[in-house]
User: What shape does this take?
Amino acid sequence: MPRGRWPKLLAIGTAAGVFSGMFGVGGGTVIVPLLILWFGYGEREATGTSLAAIAIIAAVAAGAQGAYGNVDVEKGLLIGLPAIGGVLAGTWLQQRVRTRTISLLFAALLVAVAVDLLIP
Amino acid sequence: MTGALLIGFAAGVMAGMLGVGGGVLFVPALVVFLDVGQVDAEATSLLAIVPVALVGAWRQHGYGHVRVREAVALGMLAAGGAVVGVVVANNISERGLEVGFAALTLFVAGQMVRRALGEGREGRG
Assistant: This one.
């Protein structure tokens, strides 16, 4: 990785963490667009790299929340297990759609997140 | 119960398609269908995200779409940033932050659309 990328990487990682800490919005909504717009990643690379980063972020955060006794393991598995089937389908499907479609769907997700934040 | 399973599956599809964790759907599903309080739902959602993100990253790695070193760097930086975010959120007006972040999010959405439509060609990956 070229040396000049580190400052940008530092900015994206920190921003993703700060926003997820503040709003509970997952790091992906910050990481994916910034990797695309700022690093010039392709859509599939950005989403794949984001998922790997999120696995680390969520594991650390879930561990911290678990220490406070806020995590309901049984109910987490109840929604998490079908989601594993979903993510297999989603990544399979993603290889078969145009990259432009991925970007536009992502923009729609961002608008939904913004609306959700604006509703008091 | 069925609703929770369906939304869980949908959250996974979204995670795979868009590279997010799926918390946007997990949290309301936990609150509405499984009767979990808001704070516990956000915490529990994080647990559900871990296997989803791992499996998604594993599949994308198989397709050659994961830059492992950068992902690890981002993940570790963000984990530190999250602690800062929690402190900030507890010390300044939340409403101002929400509006500010919403505006930023809309701006980025506009950039994504402009890029997707303006390029007129397939991205490289």
